[in-house]
Amino acid sequence: MAVQAIELAGKPYVLMDRAEYERLRALAKAGELPPLPKPDRDGRYPAIPYARATIARGIIRDRVRAGLSQKELARRAGIRVETLCRIEPGRHTPSVATIEKIDRALKAAAATGAAAGKR
Q1: Residue 49 and residue 55: Cα distance in Å, rounded?
Q2: Are 83 and 98 in contact (CB under 8 A)?
Q3: How many H helices and E strands in the chain?
Q4: How far apart are alpha carbons 46 and 40 in whole angstroms?
Q5: Cα 97 from Cα 82, distance rounded (Å)
Q6: How far apart are CA 35 and CA 15, in angstroms?
Q7: How confident is residue 73, by pLDDT bands cut at 50, 70 and 90?
Q8: For the chain, how big is the Rg over CA atoms in Å?
Q9: Distance CA 109, CA 62 (A)
Q10: CA dist., res. 52 & res. 94, Å (int)
């Protein structure tokens, strides 16, 4: 990664490649994972919200690690981007078939490193 530090009007700035900047932005956004639900007073977690959040968190982490946008992952998985946009915040429970499509697309992207530059 080529980075250049400069100073303008007494303030320090960093110049970097646009692709690296976008990758870092995606990583920062990945920190915005859907929260896991709180347990009830007996220590039990609500199953469906917990499953939704857990699935969503895994997809987000793997998507960002692969360097894919939501749009690109949806395209590679053969699903609508709107579907992925409902899954990632934990608002929708995906079908097994949808999870398998997403999983295959993420594994293929990780295996080939083909995500570079596809944003």
Answers
A1: 10
A2: yes
A3: 5, 2
A4: 8
A5: 16
A6: 34
A7: very high
A8: 18
A9: 10
A10: 8
Split at pLDDT 50, 70, 90, the class of 76 is very high
What amino acid occupies position 12? Answer: P
Taking the CA atoms of 101, 107, 109 and 112 in sequence, report the sign of the dihedral they define: negative
Q: Is 14 helix (H, G, I), strand (E, B) or coil?
A: strand
User: What's the CATH number for 3-34+45-112?
Assistant: 1.10.260.40
Q: What token pair was written down for 113? A: 């490193």
Structure tokens at 27: 């990583």
Judge residue 89's burial from the number of C-beta atoms within 10 Å of its C-beta, 0-12 exposed, 13-18 middle, 19 or more buried: middle
CA distance 53 to 59: 10
Residue 32's pLDDT band (cuts 50, 70, 90):
confident
pLDDT of 92-112, one tens digit each? 999 999 999 999 999 999 998
